[in-house]
Structure formats: C-alpha cells, structure tokens
Design a protein that fits this description.
The structure holds 2 protein chains of 2 kinds. By secondary structure, chain A is of the alpha/beta class. Chain A contains 4 helices and 6 strands. In chain A, about 30% of the residues lie in helices and about 20% in strands. Chain A has a 5-stranded mixed sheet, covered by helices on one side. Chain A is elongated. Chain A starts with 16 loop residues before the first helix and ends in a 12-residue tail after the last strand. By secondary structure, chain B is of the alpha/beta class. Classes of the chains: A alpha/beta, B alpha/beta. At the A-B interface, helix 1, strand 1 and helix 4 of A face helix 1, strand 1, strand 2, helix 4 and strand 6 of B. Strand 1 of chain A pairs antiparallel with strand 2 of chain B, so a sheet runs across the interface.
Chain lengths: ~170, ~170
Amino acid sequence: MSKRRKGEPSTEVVLPITPMLDMAFQLLTFFIFTYNPSGMEGQFDLSLPSENEAQAKEMKTPPPPPDPDAPPKIEADVTIIVEAVTDDVNRGEIAKIHIKQNSGSVIVGDLKELFDKLKLANETATEKEVVKIQPGSKLKWANVVMVADTCRKAGFKNVSFVEPQGFNISVVN
Amino acid sequence: MSHGGSSEGNMEPNLTPLLDVVLQLLMFFMMCVNFVTNQVSEEIVLPESMSAIPMDKSEIDVLFVNVRPFILADYESKGQNALQKLTDKFKEGDPFIIILGEEPMKFSEFKFWLRTQFSTLKRTNKDGKVKTTIVLRAHRLTDYDQVYRVMQMCKIEGFRQIKLRAITKSVVQS
C-alpha cells in the first residue's frame, strides 16, 4: 500500500461528469420518446366443442361413444345467437341478438337489453352457469368479446363459443 | 440581489444530485420497456374485456399466435418492397397470421407450422406429452369465423390448451 509522503502535492482525481451527463440525457430522451405504456393484457379461458363433435357433425356420422370415465357433459339451457351486419358501412357490427331457451326465443336489440334478459334467464335456467354463444361468421371479434362479457356480468360463468352458422369444418382439415 | 463580488471563488454547479435524478429516471424508463414485445406483435389491437383475468406469469410453455385481417392501409409505411411482398400474398381482408420470427402466414402455412411445432415438442419433451398452451391474440377487427378456424386448427393439431388475450377494461378506462 502506498502512502503519500508529507509535502507531496495531492493529486485530485477529477471525474468528467459532463460527458456522462450528456450521455445520460441522451439515453433518457430516447426512453422517454419510446415509452409506450400499453394497456394491461389479461386472458380468459374458453370452452370449445371437441373436434370429434365438430367432425362428426360435418361427416354426418354418429359421434364416438362417450367415455365412461369422462365427467358428465353439462348442456347449456341458454344459447345466444348473434347476427352480424353485412352491409359495407357497418360490416361486422351486431345486427340482432336471439336468446334461445327451452321456453322459446327472444330477440333483443342491444347489449343492455341482452343483460336484462339474461339476468331473468339466469334465474329460471337449470344450468345457471352455462351459456353458449353462436356468433355470426362475419361478426367482429371485439363484438364477440363484448357479448361474452355481458353474459359473465349477468351471472353465467361458463361461456362457450360454438361454430358460426354455415361454417365448413373441412376448411380446417 | 447579492453578488459575491469580493471573493472570486470557483462557481461550479453541483452536478451530482442532478446526475442522481437523471440516472434514476433513466433506470425507471429502462425497466418500463415492455420486454414482452419480443413475443407478441404490436400490429394486434386487442379487444377490451372486463372478464379478462391477469396472466399467469409462471406459465412459460406457451406459443403466441397473432391473427388479424390484412388491411393494406396499416402496412403502407413498411416500404415498397415489403408491401409488394405482402400484397402478392394477401388480399384486403384476408386472414393474416403473425408468429414472431416467421413470415406472415396464410391458414394453410399456419396449419403446417402448427403440425411441425407439435411434432417437435412431442419429440423433445421427456414424457412425450405436449403441455404447451396456445396464446391466441386476435385483433379486434378479425371476423369470428377466422378466430374460430384458428382455434379449431390448434385443437385438431393436438394442442389442448388455448387462452385468449384481451385488454383488461378497467385499466383502459382509467
């Protein structure tokens, strides 16, 4: 270890802060300009019909025998059919919503009305948590998610999507 | 106003606190960089959902699939060559599947890609089982039949777990 002798002039180490500060400011400016706080992404699970079911439907053959060990399948009492607008201006928006129950079918015009009717339907349904949604093939995905949200808000926790009307399963295979 | 006229001292501003603050800000912005963007595509505008639950971050065995309709206006800034390449392959409104690190795909190519992924995962996993979750990020303007087709393809190719992404609505509103 070296010791400074008495009388020797002290050597002051000068740290050049200015270039460091310049660099820090440049980096800071870069990050400020590129800062893009995106919305928080969440996710939701979904239920789909099994591929056997879908294929069987297309091939007009009976579905395979049920697995005895599998849990019993719960059928939904309530099915929601959402029709899409097909004109060029509002293509993909919600045109009409049908609520199908064992007791019959009701047509609603908007999501608020759907919510009110679903709340009532939930009280009478045997399977209170299960609902099926059948959106039109050209319905925008954002509208499908809105309908699913409305169902969940009305008390149906298990929302499943079924294939759109006129969907050809052979295009998948 | 007081002037230090008598003493001709060295009037250097103290830069250390300034530097501290700048470095702290710098650190904040560096931490806020969204590292997820190396897996997901920014071209996807997700729908908003109130029922979307926070993501399970422990889940690491995932494949991200982004789907959107091809809209020419969204890609005009990409440059002439890239745009030409895209317009040769896709027409306006065609389903456009984006997997990061791959060229944009049509359904037929996507099906082949899924099959390859599944067989690779099956071969490499010790127990021969594929537990990979497909995270489907569908653009809000995508037609339902296209989203449904992607989901069915994933199921038919053997992937059993599919999760859909959406923007949590409460966050958007705030």
